[in-house]
Amino acid sequence: MKILTSLFLLLFFINPALAQTDCPIGMVNDAAPGNCGSYVDKDKNNLCDLSEIEVPTAEKTTKLSEEEFKKRTVSEIAKIYNISAEEYARELGLFLKIIVKTSDSMAVLHDENALCATVAAGIAANIKADSPPATEPILSADEAKKVITPKYNFFPVLFVLLIAYLITYILALKKTISFLTQQRIWNLALTLFFLASGISGILLVIRINYGIMVNWPFDLLMLHVETGIAMAIISFFHLAWHWWYYACMLKRKAKKECDARENNL
Question: Residue 105: phi, psi to the nearest 5?
């Protein structure tokens, strides 16, 4: 059972990436987690390196990775590009359609408004070069949508969990494991995903509300959403197991029948 559990966790968390010289499916600025198994993001800007295009700017400026951007505030980025912090905050606000202050954290703008380093750098470079304001699209509408729209693995997570559940169910039918052991496996899985989703949610609140930044080796928001998806799916497994419990509460079935089922748990 330890081997089965390890394989399940390995399949869920690993996203294979194959080395290629350019995008094998012709995508442009393919956003994380990517549309194929070749996704690779060495500069950690949430865009596949194989499909990435440069945002047009009047001159080349200092390039910062997504993680380096997220460690800084709006005014600190403005200082790096030698531009007015107030103007940079105004142009960011116009682009995101929110009010941005010079003291705002880039990590908060990234997590709450999906502002990536590529777009933020383009806005700064346009200001520096006295180009048209950043309210004009830096990318085409389709390209911008790919950059700022996060993608989450709902169907892959659903399929992996369904297959894993089917495997444990078959093992229980064949009496390789007991049905009690099967339920314990999924109770443990639910607990682990609940803890991962809950703890990552608390860390996001601490980052957004209090500006406490920690350079995690993974995307905290992605982890929070993916584990939340897994937790919700497994919750439906539990609803299927204990439907009678809720039926007893809603339909007020005979007390003896409900008590008998509870005693058999």
Answer: -80, 140
Is the model's pTM score more than 0.70?
no
How far is C-alpha 146 from the geometric centre of its chain's CA atoms?
Answer: 15
Give the C-alpha separation, 168 to 45, whole Å: 38
* C-alpha–C-alpha distance, residues 220 and 210, integer Å: 16
- pLDDT value of position 155: 93
Select the more confidently predicted residue: 85 or 192. 192
Closest to 185 (Cα-Cα) out of 201, 198, 197, 172: 172
Is the torsion defined by CA of 71, 59, 119, 41 positive or negative? Answer: negative
* Distance of alpha carbon 187 from alpha carbon 62, whole angstroms: 49
Residues near 227 by beta carbon (within 8 Å), at least 6 away in sequence = 193, 196, 197, 200
pLDDT tens figures, 147-162: 444 578 899 999 999 9
CA atoms in the 13 A half-sphere facing the CB of 159: 5
Residue ranges covered by each domain of the chain: 17-148, 154-263
